[in-house]
Every structure is written in C-alpha cells, then in structure tokens.
Specification:
17% strand; 3 strands; elongated; alpha+beta; three-stranded antiparallel sheet
Length: 84
C-alpha cells in the first residue's frame, strides 16, 4: 500500500498514513479536526521518510537485543539451584 505524507491545517502536525489510492483521508489523527489534512507532495514526503531506519537495520538491532536477553536468562538459570 502507498504511504502518503499529510499536514494538518489546525495543529501543523506532519505524519505518514498508509492507505489505498482510492481512499480519502481528511481528518487529523492527532487533534481530531475534521477535513483539516492536506497531502504534502511526494518529494517532501521522501525527505521525511529518509530519516527512518531501514528494515534490515531494525531487524539486526532486534536480534542483537534478543541475544543479550537470552544470555542474561542463561546466566540466571545457571545460578539457580533446581530440585526435581
């Protein structure tokens, strides 16, 4: 689905919304103003998206954090005294 960058005329918030091309989005999610959204041209929206992390980097960081948590859990299990 395409992503569109919008700006609210009421609160000046800018955000990305994913929706179908045939769908119309007019109400602001942040301030709930009706018919206040204007779509920002695609060139400007690419500049906003540029700061986002790539999906591969996000997955890599998640795996790194998960490995740390597993090592902590392993150490905790080794120190506990289990009885059957």
């Amino acid at each position: 689905m395409p992503r569109y960058c919008y700006r609210c005329k009421s609160c000046d918030a800018e955000f990305l919304i994913v929706h179908l091309m045939s769908e119309r989005v007019e109400d602001c999610e942040k301030c709930e103003a009706e018919a206040s959204l204007i779509r920002i041209p695609s060139i400007a929206s690419k500049l906003v998206v540029k700061g986002e992390k790539k999906p591969g980097a996000v997955v890599k960081q998640y795996l790194k954090d998960a490995k740390k948590e597993i090592e902590i859990e392993k150490k905790g299990l080794r120190t506990k005294d289990f009885k059957c």
